[in-house]
């Protein structure tokens, strides 16, 4: 309509591009923006009540149990065979002078490694060289296991919170598990089509050759595809921000891929161009445009973006 002069103005999400400037006039941009990535909120793996077992594989836990039983048996046999582990609990009683006891009963042999593993010790102390050697080996094993478990547990909790499938356009271009596309025949599609940046060229080649097509006909169709499948929608940041404010299941990945602006379109040589541009500059200077944006963009019910500072563990983390 602007090209045929059937309309005087076009006020919408109208991106200023070189191709459009050849056939119509634009005012100065009233809003700056860029291409961004819209994706659904990544929920991550929900921690279970046995998440504390995750730092070690099931095989490691099994071998630890077998090691515990083996050490208990060796300790029991070594104490029985060594004369230094036999003692008289009542040396002052003459009638019990020949009655000897061994502190490493079967129960105590099982309890002693548990105390060492929990780093609490026990009232049982080895006397013979053989039992001391077995105890020393077990304590060294316990030190390594506890240190490894503590380090791995911290790493697992950190990864569990920070795990995100994609974090930038480069991540998107380097994988094929998550599909991505944009509105067909829109300014975002033109940007990728004409870009000489290697990453964006790879993304364009993927979008162009992907079957079924990753292009959509409208923003609403793209958002529905994001919510219902593994799909990242490339669209202008203003639309991204608006829909994120009104749908808490959406999030933006990474920063902006370029910088551009929205302008008011009009036919070539329109007499209103300078007056409209002057009015836009005045609205920007008195902050009126920013106030209007906050009024309409921040009217959603979604909370603010979650920060990445350390938070306390919940019951689901510690079982």
Comma- or semicolon-separated keywords:
46% helix, 4-stranded mixed β-sheet, rod-shaped, alpha+beta, Helix Hairpins, D-Maltodextrin-Binding Protein, domain 2, two-stranded antiparallel ribbon, 2 domains, 10 strands, 319 residues, 12 helices
Task: Please give a structural write-up.
With 319 residues, the chain is an alpha+beta fold. It folds into two domains: 18-42 and 165-301, D-Maltodextrin-Binding Protein, domain 2, CATH 3.40.190; 51-162, Helix Hairpins (Orthogonal Bundle). The protein contains twelve helices and ten strands. The strands form four sheets. A four-stranded mixed β-sheet has the order 6-7-3-8. It has a two-stranded antiparallel sheet with strand order 1-10.
Could you outline the blueprint of secondary structure elements for this entry?
Elements: H1 18-21, E1 24-26, E2 31-33, E3 35-40, H2 58-81, E4 86-87, E5 101-102, H3 106-117, H4 129-162, H5 169-173, E6 179-181, H6 187-194, H7 198-209, H8 219-228, E7 231-236, H9 237-246, E8 250-253, E9 260-262, E10 265-267, H10 273-285, H11 288-297, H12 315-318
Parallel strand pairs: 6-7
Antiparallel strand pairs: 1-10, 2-9, 3-7, 3-8, 4-5
Helix pairs in contact: 2-3, 2-4, 6-7
Domain Ionotropic glutamate receptor C-terminal: 1-299
Protein name: Glutamate receptor
Main location: membrane
């Amino acid at each position: 309509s602007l090209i045929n002069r059937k309309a005087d103005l076009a006020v919408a999400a109208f991106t200023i591009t070189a191709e459009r400037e050849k056939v119509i006039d634009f005012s100065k941009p009233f809003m700056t923006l860029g291409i961004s990535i819209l994706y659904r909120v990544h929920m991550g793996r929900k921690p279970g009540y046995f998440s504390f077992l995750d730092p070690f594989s099931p095989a490691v836990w099994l071998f630890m149990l077998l090691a515990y039983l083996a050490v208990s048996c060796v300790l029991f046999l070594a104490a029985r065979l060594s004369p230094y582990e036999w003692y008289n609990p009542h040396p002052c009683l003459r009638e019990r002078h020949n009655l000897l006891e061994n502190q490493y009963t079967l129960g105590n042999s099982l309890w002693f490694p548990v105390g060492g593993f929990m780093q609490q010790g026990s009232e049982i102390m080895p006397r013979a060289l053989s039992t001391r050697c077995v105890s020393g080996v077990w304590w060294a094993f316990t030190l390594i296991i506890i240190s490894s478990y503590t380090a791995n547990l911290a790493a697992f909790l950190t990864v569990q919170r920070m795990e995100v499938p994609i974090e930038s356009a480069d991540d998107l271009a380097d994988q094929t598990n998550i599909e991505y596309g944009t509105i067909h025949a829109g300014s975002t599609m033109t940007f990728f089509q004409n870009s000489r940046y290697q990453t964006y060229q790879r993304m364009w080649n993927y979008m162009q050759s992907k079957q079924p097509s990753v292009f959509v006909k409208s923003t609403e169709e793209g958002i529905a595809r994001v919510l219902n499948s593994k799909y990242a929608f490339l669209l202008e940041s203003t639309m991204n921000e608006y829909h994120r404010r009104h749908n808490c299941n959406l999030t933006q990945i990474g920063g902006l891929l370029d910088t551009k602006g929205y302008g008011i379109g009009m036919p070539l040589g329109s007499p209103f161009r300078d007056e409209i541009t002057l009015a836009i500059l005045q609205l920007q200077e008195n902050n009126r445009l920013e106030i209007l944006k906050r009024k309409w963009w921040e009217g959603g019910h979604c909370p603010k973006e979650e920060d990445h500072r350390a938070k306390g563990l919940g019951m689901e983390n510690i079982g």
